[in-house]
Specification:
single chain, 120 residues, alpha+beta, Nucleotidyltransferase, domain 5, four-stranded mixed sheet, 4 helices, globular, structural constituent of ribosome, Ribosomal_uL18_bac-type, RNA-binding
């Protein structure tokens, strides 16, 4: 593998280890961003299940967005995943940014999820 990929994997593993140590068993709000879209899901690591998910590819969002790779799309995904999590009875999560910096689209998603009622 390339050095860049290895560094990303190490950052992701380091962050997940810290989340596991400090989150106190909370569910995890995981973010993945690609060049064209952004995805978010609430994961129960103990059971190994995804409890709520949203992406910029969802039918309702895709029609409203110009592109899935901007802050507006990330904010819409954050709002939608928070609504779906609240429907599933989830209010507290730990935010897993993956190997990404807390900046731009990742920050927009997190802020929108907080405004919609998720606590992290």
């Amino acid at each position: 593998m390339t050095a860049t990929y290895d560094n990303e994997v190490r950052r992701r593993q380091r962050l997940r280890y810290q989340l596991k140590q400090k989150s106190g068993g909370r569910l995890r709000l995981s973010v993945f961003r690609s060049g064209k879209h952004i995805y978010a899901q609430v994961i129960d690591d103990a059971a190994g299940r995804t409890l709520a998910a949203a992406s910029s590819l969802d039918a309702g969002l895709k029609a409203d967005l110009k592109t899935g790779a901007d802050r507006a799309a990330a904010a819409a995904v954050g709002k939608l995943v928070a609504e779906r999590a609240k429907e599933a009875g989830i209010t507290k999560v730990a935010f897993d940014r993956g190997a990404y910096k807390y900046h731009g689209r990742v920050k927009a998603l997190a802020d929108a999820a907080r405004e919609s009622g998720l606590d992290f």
